[in-house]
Here is the input.
Amino acid sequence: MTALSDAGLPARPRLLRPAGLLPWAGALAVLAALWLAGGQAGWLNSYPDAWILPLRDWVSEAMRWLVKDASFGLFTFKELTRAFAGLLDLPLQICLILLSRGFAVPLGGDAGLLIPPLSWLGVTGALVWAAWRVGDAKLAGLVAGCFGYLAVFGQWNSAMVTLSSILVAVPVGILGGAALGILGYRSRAAERALTPVLDLMQTVPVFAYLVPVLFLFGFGPVSAMIATIIYAMPPMVRVTMLALRSVPAEVLEFGRMAGCSRRQMLWKVLLPSARHSLMVGVNQVIMLSLNMVIIASMIGAGGLGHDVLTSLRRLQIGDGLEAGVAITVLAISLDRLSQAIANRTSTPVHLQADQSYAVRHATWLGIVAILAGTYLLAFFLPALRSYPDWLTLDTGPLFDDLVQWINVHAYSVLDAVKSWLLIHVLIPFKRLLVEAPWPGVALLLAVAGWRIGGVRLGLTVALLTVFIAVTGNWEKAMVSAYLCGISVVLAMAIGVPIGVAAAANERVHRIAQNTVDTLQTLPSFVYLIPVVMLFQVGDFSAMIAITAYALAPAVRYTDHGLRGVSSEVIEAARMSGCRPWQLLWKVRLPLALPEIMLGVNQTIMMALSMLVITALVGTRDLGQEVYIALTRADTGLGLVAGVCVAFLAIIADRLIGAWSHKRKQELGLA
Amino acid sequence: MTDGQNTPTLASPAAPGSPPAKLICRGLWKLFGADAERFLERTGGDPSAQQIADAGLIGAVRDADLEVGEGEVFVIMGLSGSGKSTIVRCLSRLIEPTAGELVFEGADLRRADARQLTEIRRHKMGMVFQHFALLPHLSVLGNVAFPLEIQGVARGEREARAMEMIDLVGLSGRETYFPSELSGGQQQRVGIARSLAVKPEIWFLDEPFSALDPLIRREMQDEFLRLQRVLHKTIVFITHDFDEAIRLADRIAIMKDGEIVQIGTPEEVVTAPATQYVAEFTRDVPRAKVMSVRALMTPGDGAGTEGTVPADARVNEVAHEVVHGRKPVAVVDDAGAVIGRLERAPVVDVLAPGGPEPAPATAAAAS
Here is the structure.
């Protein structure tokens, strides 16, 4: 009887069969053997210098040729880049004149007539008015508060410089991204060419392409803007392709049946139908542009980013914090404003034919009226022109005192915690990774890829790993992996329980959601300020900053994954008598695991992007290489190290993504 | 009755005396998959289902023949995956057929180039979609006027025409609403108005009421019948709902696995299902609702009858009169001439089937 019923059962799951475990065991055995053999053959432990492919020198050479010698016959490559830069410089100058510095009309000799910039109160008032029109009183209040902060804390001028470059970079990023996205939507070939580039763009740390941008366009606000556009554009391309693809097939068919030409199809059917999804991309471009503010100031952006960077270098915590918060409030107000505009496009407004021109265009007329009114008034009331100095607050000394106080009173405690963790956790883990024989690690990763996603994934992972070794970045990459790995573990250890709590409780959910949203609008640099304040520079500070930055997805995905478990399954489990803990451990967590793993994936991506920034606080990993390359304008070094970071990210992304996909299929969720 | 005896894949020529065909499709094939055209040539233009499956292709439409007469409501009925959506898209060339002939108003539709096709679609075709396919950013007025806007009709003119259509479908007063503010039934009314705005010569409706609740669906079917009484359009109507097909159709084509199994009037399909598959659908249909007096009458003169009924009336419409009358009733044609008589017994058999003797037609089809 038993034999019969056994025969009817399906075979045991593949992973449990001994054959499925064999490759893992084999790879581990090889790793161990190589480790032991490492004593005899030094090349196993550290990749020999003689074998390093001088890729970075080749890249640097190519760059030099491009800038010095490349020519298209009529004009040289350099002239082309300069012309492009000039094109972007014009709108930037107009914005700067309007918002920040005014315009001096030379009248011969020493005399000059200064046409002043817009009044600070006018700009604030116009934005508040716009916020009230597209949103509600709450949004208007928020915008008032944010721009009020900029004025009161003496950040106005820097903020306007930053805002000017955002005002130019964002439209260029949106239009360029949308154009590329439309191209990718229309042509399969274009899409196939775009996708890997986008993948790489979103994983290469920003610093890596700061170097070539610096090389091609020189140091200054325009280069900074170009880097910002390059950084902020990829999501727009993706969103555009996705948004256009998700326009229902029937709507397209309708367009064809109505006899639309290609252009009518695009402008009258596709783009309007997808406009809501497209706004998500617009919002992304704004947020990413603001995220770039500090980094872009390394190649001459000026404004708030410059202020943060200088005070961070001088360890003037208070000033850095003020400017950092200024970037944040700018980000928050622009984010909320753009979201309100996006929501407005989805809620219909019934236009009445009898409404007058003034009523229908009240938003724009109001903005113009406020700006013009305050501008004229300011000629009589100088306090309207620029915010009066005697009314500004400066918290710099306060914070400096605070840091001093902490250093005097809490130093021993903080230092003890830090030392203990360094000695017992960080350093052993770092040594483990750095000393592991590189061929063994590559093999283990390849086997993981093969078992999870098939031969192709295994080969991809192996190739990427070997690339890192061959370009001579193995040890630095392992330091990156160690810093990143430990931070991710920490972030998950903190984030998953919060996510579990948020999934169980509506109030925690709301608080967590808001906090996470806010954390994600903070530019990454801001995380460094308090950390440096408490722990000085070094691996430990980097770890804390990375953890804090990468926490958000851990919370979000856990919460989302647990909430996504179908309510029928939960009811079934309840009816079989599960206690709350059993429900969590035996039903909800296993079912939510694929989603949570995607959260881990996101956490790793964010950790890696933060990694390069923490180079500023003195780590010795790939991030530092990229940073050094930037200061030396060494294109080859920067790009190769940057690509290595990207490859680390891609390896983690592909492995986890494939696992999550496979598991979801096994669970019947995908 | 003779039409119902046709072999399944043969085209059913429009009944004698019926109006000329507006749209003819002969030997239409649509195979999805790589190199479908070459495969079709290789197999002599008539591959079996097995051959198609072996080649890794999907036979969405296989050798379909049909003719849609001027002013006729032609319903294509089939379950999901039967190829009914593909065939209607082939008829409008939204999907390019793999092989076959399409004749629209006497001209070869497959030979039309992109520009001609656009012109035909702009001026002669209208289509209603299952999920409405309204443009979310336009008001009701904007949506209905959209096909005219695409043609470049001036604003005043197109809006006047659109208002007329909105009025026709009973949405007056809602022209400034946006699709998201309307119920499903109202949205489909907009879809109908929009497709009629260009005064199409042929009107395609792809499962227009499938996404609606049963009550609303019924209401929309009534609305459809009312519109057709006013407009007399040539209509190709797709549905998966057999009852809907019977209610609305002048003629029905039933599809299964890409093939047309039977074409006929509702009466023919119900009384003489061509295959077991069709019989499955017709089994529960009340025959009195589809059978005409003509089918039950005994030809002859009006001797010994009392009262008259039209030959084209449905049995359920005259049942009361026949069953309760003392004598048989006379059957008259459109001109009012007596062409036969209707006895009580066959009417009762139709009203209450399942007696000792099953209706002869059903028995024949089932064998």
Remarks:
- The first strand of chain A starts at residue 103 and ends at 106.
- Chain A has 32 helices and two strands.
- Chain A has three domains: 120-347+364-390, 430-435+473-670, 438-470.
